[in-house]
Amino acid sequence: MLLLLTLLSCTAKDPCSTLNCDSGTGGDTGSSTGGDTGSTTSGDAGSTTSGDAGSTTSGSLDGLVVFSSTRTGASDIYSMKPDGTELTRLTTSDDYEMDPALSPDGSRIAYVDHSQASIWLMDVDGGNQAELTDGGGSWNYQPAWSPDGTQIAFGNIATGTMALWVVNVDGSGLTQITDGSTYRGMPDWSPDGSGLLCGGLDYVYKVALDSTETLVGGTGVDSAPRWNADGTMIIFSSTSTGTAEIYSMNADGTDITQLTNDDGGATNPDWSPDGSMIIYTSWGGKNGGELYTAHADGSGAVDITNAPGDDDVPDWR
Ligand SMILES: [Ca+2]
After folding, report:
1. Ligand 1 midpoint to CA 289 (Å)
2. Could you report the per-residue pLDDT of 26-43, keeping only the tens digit for each?
3. Which of 15, 229, 270, 287 has a C-alpha 20 to 30 A away from that of 253?
């Protein structure tokens, strides 16, 4: 049963990463954490963690990253600074915890307890873990906070196809947003609160309460879209070239730009709080999924996890 759930979750979460889960033989993605690490951990990424001596683009490594990792076996939630320091394990059970999302004020984390198939909340230090939605046989995944921190959107595959639901953070007001006739998953709430980005099996969509707008897609799998802080740009992964890579585009779907060129595939991107940096999962190395930070144009990529098992689904606030 657990294997079935795992496969379903992986497929629902990101079909392209499912493909790459099995590859494991890709080449080195080229970046390293070498170089001068004598600087302090705040401020300019180029002078702190990047081993690419030639990179001069600046970027901010402020904020906190939460992610899931299978480095100890079962998937657990971890937090760390965006330079890879101050790694903290937040969940320790034998259940599979995954899909962490930091609240807008950074005080709480919404996540999935895979064994319960439900959405949970905990404090950012791992305290006060409590179930928010009752899985009840219908599987809930991929929580995303509303910008005011009062609601959480998530994917639910009760009908067999991922649909978007919304619930208040006190557990009230459970509402289905999309009807489940077409895949709508991996939500991300717009900074102005007006709608939800979601990845489909084939397109990136923007979902309002009564309409859906297709932004990009048609070739390969387009998934895991995230707005930047001011809502002007969207980052997402796509297999349009055959391999999953990270792309950015304007919020209206124009000016699509490929940011990564990762032989093993790159998925599940997010922006730094100020939009100057990105984070994503790379599947091309020898350590399973690895989290990389890079400048917003994709340059200066740095592996910040360097741990066995799959480090995945980063959320950066
Ligand atoms: Ca790893």
Report:
1. 5
2. 333 333 333 333 333 333
3. 15
